[in-house]
Records
---
Amino acid sequence: MSGSPYPLGLRLAGRRVVVVGGGVVATRRMPALLDAGADVLLVAPELTPALRAHADAGRLRWERRRFAVDDLDGAWLVQVAVDDPSAAAAISTVADERRIFCVRADDRAAATAWTPAVTRQGPVTVAVLGGGDPRRAMAVRDAVRDLLAAGPGPLDPPPADAGARGVPGPARPTRRGGHVALVGAGPGDPELITVKGRRLLTEAEVVVADRLVPGLLLDELRPEVELVDAAKIPYGPARAQEEINQILVDRALAGRSVVRLKGGDPYVFGRGGEELLACAGAGVPVTVVPGVTSAIAAAAGAGVPVTHRAVAHEFTVVSGHVSPDSSASMVRWEHLAGLRGTLVILMGLKNLAAISATLVTYGRPAQTPAVVVQEGTTGAQRTIRSTLGVVAADVTAAGLRPPAIVVVGDVVGALDL
Ligand SMILES: C[S@@+](CC[C@H](N)C(=O)[O-])C[C@H]1O[C@@H](n2cnc3c(N)ncnc32)[C@H](O)[C@@H]1O
């Protein structure tokens, strides 16, 4: 077959696609077909566990047998992913007779359609055909993906995928196109931001950053991006939050794409909810991009899993910023003391003596292992191992300071060799 390939974007939603074969190739092809909303008929005597999971979940229909000619009834496309070349050729012949495009894993030259190497960035899909050489296609695809990830360029203006209430959904930017993304920056290691968070950051025109966000992420911003350092807003905490809300709303209503970059996850002691409500109240659409929270990642950074089989069946994340003996405390520490699992305390260093004493008083054994992790996942990470009874004294002696988490429970030694 000669002639250069003619690229198309197939809109497969609700349309029958037949996949023949249940092995590794079919497994790799399947997610994109399902993502496109195709009505997939999978014909194969056996399936890989991943394909089986799709079938069990009802995402596709599985015929547990070999291919039959009638399988192509009503099909728009067939993907042949079988090892046997003569079987593949036979399916391909039937597809040809019925004028159904046929992708063949075993013989690209005999196929009537090729699958490109693909990268997706928000609403943009880049598909690369390598002139019959899939490795060339993948190399070009990777280069394009890196280019797109490096800066807004062709993706500017930003995609309008901002749902009005935090869940990614249909776009409805402000009349002038502005919107806010509440993005979790992760615990400290700049590589622990999500792919979506990073993309929105590269597309932002305004970035309002918290004290705890990884500085390297900010270094990468284009010079024309307005960077607002939320830590430098010169009011008390309550006024500062109002001020931040106002900045988000004002910039978005002026038509700008704003990223509110927050340490860890925006909704874990991050006041993300207040910012979402302020934006929603002003008619500004918001996308929420969850982040990797320090509650889990700083522990992991110190080699501590927050759960471990046969050690802990629960983990509880609690803020220690209010002392247990304060009337303002909303935490029932006496109940937490009765739990056997893992307790992760954020913002707890200042009150650690009172917290640990309360937990011991109400029944958590003083010998329970504890670890304190300062600046977890960063190059400056510091860790001390201790026990609940003496952890506060150990923190003072070691001179540990915020940001730090305290993890209490038998998981602390669970991975010790
Ligand atoms: C206002 S809370 C914000 C938590 C954040 N939203 C999250 O999900 O990680 C700040 C507290 O998070 C904890 N924290 C944040 N980053 C940390 C890190 N890299 N290492 C240890 N603790 C961290 C500390 O307890 C700090 O006082």
---
Amino acid sequence: MPTSYLVAGASRGIGLEFIRQLARQQQEEDDDVVVYGTVRNLEKAPASLTNGSSSQEAELRRVKWLQLDTNEQSQVDEAARQVDELDVLIVNAAIGGEDLDLMDTNPSLLSQYLQNNVVGPHRIILAFLDALRKGKQKKIILISSRSGSMDMQAKSQQKHGSAGPYSVTKAAINMCAIQLARELKPQGFIVNPLSPGWVSTDMGNKIVNDKAMPVEQSVGGMLNVIRSLTLEKSATFYHYDGSVVPW
Ligand SMILES: NC(=O)c1ccc[n+]([C@@H]2O[C@H](COP(=O)([O-])OP(=O)(O)OC[C@H]3O[C@@H](n4cnc5c(N)ncnc54)[C@H](OP(=O)(O)O)[C@@H]3O)[C@@H](O)[C@H]2O)c1
């Protein structure tokens, strides 16, 4: 039986690289992997932007693209109706990268951050639970950030990574992972937040940092972590290299 993955928020950056690496695995292992990617605008799905001339583009054409904005309940429900069975859900979509302090964040902007980075991911998870229940692996992966580590932020004398409202949402998503891991454990679910590290993407490059790593390295590491996850490792916060991040 093939293993099925769905990456929510796959139009670019880390989400698109997940799709590329999984689709490559799909090609190499002769359909042993089924890959779903979600984008906000289906007409701009990565495969349809290409002319199909390179092997990478051919890989992307094998992906099943679904349209959804994580803030739109009806789109999320419609996408979930199209997936009968799912092994691994990777919730990647988020906003961030702004260098903002909390004291300069107005309530409507904080609300926007919470909607995109906490309420949206929660909505996606609820919508795909039935498909995950039918899957063999029952893995829910929340793409988080070390910015959301209370321990690292509290011990840092200076701003640690992307602070402000973004860090609040990533701390919240970590707590969602802990609570969902506990609630869903009796059904055999594995729920983990993962930190990609500092990655060269649109978001990662908003904060000038010459140490941002190539997206291939971060996603390759996270896929190794995802494959190694077991029920005993559920509710642990992992960095892309397999080390444990303090809460
Ligand atoms: N890059 C880093 O250094 C870094 C570090 C730590 C954690 N992270 C986390 O890694 C994940 C991916 O980041 P990235 O660097 O790849 O960011 P990115 O380049 O800005 O891409 C963000 C992705 O999320 C999608 N998205 C955002 N809001 C959405 C919504 N409401 N509905 C559907 N899709 C939505 C975007 O779609 P559109 O194209 O439609 O906007 C895009 O595909 C995020 O969770 C981020 O917090 C990144």
